[in-house]
Design brief:
Oligomer: homodimer
Distance between the termini of chain A: 19 Å
Largest sheet of chain A: 4 strands, mixed
Largest interface: A-B, 32 and 32 residues
Mean pLDDT of chain A: 97
Shape of chain A: globular
Helix content of chain A: 40-55%
Order of helices and strands of chain A: EHEHEEHHHHH
Chain lengths: ~200, ~200
């Protein structure tokens, strides 16, 4: 198999951090997104949505969507479990993975893509008003998350999971999106610092 | 357990259709979203995001996010498998569930919530330009899906899955969002008609 990787972008990083937490090494093909290589035939024929990452299996089967690629590796290599254990644990990981994705990861992405001048050719058309509307949504959700993290170590409970990976990457992406984590969210800050200090964060 | 249900809204329906496909009956508490009951204490104390559906287990544990609730029931009642079988099958269901959710379900929702006059108190502030930008995104994705469905019966392969449920509900929601499925997408139309004729679609 080989993983077509997109460098600094959030979704490619999500899969790399996941693989690092699993201790897995997968052959990578670097795709230069800054040069729009993901719009060229090498990727576009594999993923008509022209997005990265893309996993190609040895028989040519294509898997896209970062969380789907992660789930494939979870099924092949169940330990350490990053999608939770037993019915309720798996459901709680899914719940927090989705809460963080829909209320943090996506809004941060909208704020970045619809406002940042460097995204003008990427997000056509940019709707700056939509970008601005998403900034307070990010802060509102961080307030909720801060209360939740007062009572536990990780997003979905006492065990690290894919929900934490999505959270780490969303918060790191707040920097280019020019949204600051408010000082008073001390639990979010403690959580993010712990995630950022794991070796996987460098992936 | 009991399921706090929100009637016509897309996410509550997603769980009801899923339960119908599983042949499961779960005690329901009807919440009148038109009267904003989901913003009142009964729901807001259970889900600070004030969204439905909400599943409350007998020990008081709360599960939110429709796909997380569905996954809980999948784990408890594996047959019929609606999240796929074996590693690759599960990954392909996750891939199509996410592709349909991110490129169809969400954009249809944005078009509805940011344009429809009835949503003025629900989506604050409405950004009509953002709603309009999403309409061609919906059509672009349906074009891709139409090509895919030329070669198979269901979204993720030869078996019905949660990806089809998300697709059914997204396409049904195009009506209030005032987006038509173009006549020429005959595979999408065949697929939607087949899904809409299943008994679960009435749930």
């Amino acid at each position: 198999m080989k993983l077509f990787d997109g460098g600094k972008a959030p979704n490619p990083r999500r899969v790399r951090v996941f693989l690092a937490e699993k201790g897995l090494e997968v052959p990578m093909v670097r795709v230069d997104m800054a040069a729009f290589e993901h719009k060229q035939a090498g990727i576009a024929t594999r993923n008509p949505l022209q997005r990265l990452p893309v996993l190609e299996l040895d028989d040519g089967t294509i898997l896209t969507e970062s969380v789907a690629i992660c789930r494939y590796f979870e099924e092949l290599h169940p330990e350490p479990a990053l999608f939770g254990r037993v019915a309720l644990g798996k459901a709680l990981v899914e719940m927090w993975q989705r809460r963080i994705e829909l209320n943090l990861f996506l809004p941060v992405g909208f704020a970045f893509r619809h406002i940042h001048p460097a995204m003008k050719e990427w997000e056509v058309p940019q709707v700056p008003e939509w970008g601005e509307v998403n900034k307070p949504k990010v802060i509102d959700f961080l307030a909720l998350l801060d209360q939740e993290l007062a009572a536990r170590e990780f997003a979905a409970g006492d065990q690290f999971s894919i929900a934490d990976i999505t959270g780490l990457i969303a918060i790191d992406f707040m920097k280019p999106a020019r949204i600051a984590v408010p000082e008073e969210f001390s639990n979010v800050r403690r959580w993010h610092a712990a995630l950022a200090s794991r070796p996987s964060a460098a992936a």
